[in-house]
Every structure is written in C-alpha cells, then in structure tokens.
Amino acid sequence: TEIDWKAYMEEVEGFANGTLDYTQLRGDTGPLVYPAGFVYIFLGLYYATGRGTDIRLAQYLFAGLYLLNLLLVFRIYCRTNKVPPYVFFFMCCASYRIHSIFVLRLFNDPVAMALLFLAINLFLEEHWSWGCLLFSLAVSVKMNILLFAPGLLFLLLQRFGLLGCIPKLCICAVLQVVLGLPFLLVNPVGYLTRSFDLGRQFQFKWTVNWRFLPEEVFQNRAFHATLLLAHLAGLVLFAVHRWHRSKESILALLKDPAERKHASPPLTVNNILWQGGEQGGGAQIVFVLFSSNFLGICCSRSLHYQFYVWYFHTLPYLLWCTPTSKLAHMPKVLLLGMIELCWNTYPSTVCSSLSLHICHGLILLQLWYGTVPPPVPHTPPPSRRPTPISKKAQ
Asked: Which residue ranges does UniProt annotate as crossing the membrane (predicted)?
C-alpha cells in the first residue's frame, strides 16, 4: 500500500538533492508527471516524516487532511442547503475506497481536492481573487482540477465580464509561473512536457470505467479524440442551456455586467441564476463547478481507483440539487451505493465498468432534465380596441 508514497518520496528527494531538471526526477513507478506545487508540498512531508520513512506519521497527517476536507465540503453543503442531512452519514462512513485513498495510500489527489474545496468556499464568500489563487495552487498539485476550469471561467465571465475576469486569470497563470520558475529556468520544455502532459497514455489494467472495451480500442487515439469532442460538446450544451439563464445571448457574458440589457443576479451562495425559485432547479456557483467537473469525469479517457476522490464528495449535491420527491430519495441513495460498489470492485470487470457508465448517465439525465428553465409566461398583446370614454370625461 505504500508503493505510491515511496515513489513520491523518491521524486521529491531528487529535488531536495538539488536536481532542477524535471526530466531527471523519477521514482519507482516512473518519471515525475505532476506540476511543481506537488513537489513543494510533498517535499514538506518528506522532511516532516524523516525523509519519508515514518509512514505512520504521514497517515496521521493525511487523517487530519481528511477531516479538514470533510469540514470544507460540509461548509459548502450547509451554505447551499440542498442535500438532506442523512446523506452526510454515507459521505463520512460508507466509502472504504475514499478512506483508503486518503489514509492508507497517501495519494496526492486528496491534497489537490482539499485545496479545491477551500477555493470554492472562498468563491462562496465572494473572495474571487483568493479563490483563484487557491484554485491555481490545487492545479499545481494535480491537473485533474482543470476539469473545474470551464465552470470557473463561466462564473468569472458571468460575474465580471471579459475585461474584469482577465486579472483573475492572471492570478492563476502567475502562480503557475512562480511555482515552476526554478524548473523553467533550467529546462522549460522538460518541465512543461512532464508536468502538463495531456497526451499521456494510461495502462488498460488500471482502468475502472472502460474495462468493457477491447484494449486496442482503449488505446486508440481516435477513441480519445471522440471522448474529447463529447466532453467539449457537453460543456457547450450545459453552458448555453443550463448555466446561462439570461434572455440575452451567451456572448453577452463578454460585456461588462453593468452594460448588459438583462442584468443577471449576483452569484451569491443562495441565489439561483435564473427565475423559477426552488422548484426550478439551481444553476448556482456550486452547480456550475460540480457539473463542469462531472462532465469531465464522464468523458475521461481512464479512471484509476484513486480518481474516485475527484468527484465522490460532489455526488450528493449533483443528485439532490434538482427537485426531489419523497419517493425519489431512495433511488438516489441506491445510485450512490451502486457507484461505490463499482469503485470497490477490484480488478474492474465488464459489469462494474458498464454499471458505472449507466450510473453516470442517469445522473447526467437528471441534471439536464431537472434543471430545465421554467417557460417564460406568455403575456397577451394589448388590445387594440379603443378605450371607452367615461361619462364624466365627456
């Protein structure tokens, strides 16, 4: 269970010994493929745990990280007020796989997600600059956080317009440059190709979601391109028809908010971005970010077991953010249980991977149809008949 931890420690040990060429940083499992923020955070853990030898202490530290992550997630859910309280029991106690990812395997994925949830808390408090800084820091630990980026871009445009969101995007970009500067000065191409390698091939034996495919199809570049196109199409459809609620074209997001004809309501935590109240659904800040990430999960080239933490804590919100009748609660709980069962099947099987896609498809359907904007009330045209003149007027 300590294979990945030892590989992390070997990767950052090279940096501790003065190696700044990113292509020379390696561990037992292969070359270092994470951005620079990962190196600095795990270098701190390297020294805190006696050069990585005190694994028990590392597990205690990750147990603390797990509790902090839960606190940040609960704060988001309490502010949105969408999920029934009993669901939090399943989030805390019912996932063996999540406990393993955090406390047993010591992956870097939980570190990135904890920073992401901290950033979302800052967004909910209207601290957009600080939130963008933490979001970029999360990206520097692991690139899966970029799945939230389309939603964040939409929110920034909605809130600030094109010119207003540029400083926020600069915060994200500058932090990446600052963190990677020691490596960029030595071997910029090596750093960029290793830490932001979007074309990396995954091994078929570890896939959780595509086990039912033949391996040659799984490794085929045309299949990867199809998934990318499906992902982009899903983002466009959600952005135009589910995230954007103004009567204006979505291109109006490029304007300054004060210059828009139909000003959108401010993106506060309990504010729905379109008229219709609680019965209408809710494309809130959390909805936009969580659905953006979920679309990426559904179209992922491969999901490994530690990737479960990428969206586990967002599933209750995605299931309960739409209007829910009393009879619909149990099927949603069963859906959570089925997803958990798929992720706990090792090695994955044709049945488990197909079941996972079916569960994802059901969630997507209820997100799409459960957040349909209410019909615009039809107002009859004014009558052209002349208004009768009263006797007093005569």
From this structure: 32-48, 60-77, 106-124, 130-157, 169-186, 222-240
Please say whether the beta carbons of 236 and 292 come within 8 A. Answer: no
Q: What is the DSSP letter of 269?
A: T
Residue 31, phi then psi, degrees to nearest 5: -70, 160
Written as one letter, the residue type at 254 is L
The tokens for 363 are 């969630």
Backbone angles phi, psi at 323, to 5 degrees: -55, 130
Read off the tokens for 278: 């609680």
CB count within 10 Å of CB 257 equals 16
Give the residue from 208, 206, 184, 185 showing the smallest Cα distance to 194: 184
Q: What is the pTM of this model?
A: 0.90
How does pLDDT run along the chain (394 residues), one tens digit per residue? Answer: 678 899 999 999 999 999 999 999 998 888 999 999 999 999 999 999 999 999 999 999 999 999 999 999 999 999 888 899 999 988 988 888 999 999 999 999 999 999 999 999 999 999 999 999 999 999 999 999 999 999 999 999 999 999 999 999 999 999 999 999 999 999 999 999 999 887 777 889 899 999 999 999 999 999 999 999 999 999 999 999 999 877 788 888 888 888 887 655 444 444 433 333 333 333 479 999 999 999 999 999 999 999 999 999 999 999 998 887 877 889 999 999 999 999 999 999 999 999 999 999 999 999 999 877 655 555 555 555 554 544 444 4
d(CA 299, CA 254): 28
d(CA 111, CA 8): 13
**Distance separating alpha carbons of residues 343 and 257, to the nearest angstrom:** 43
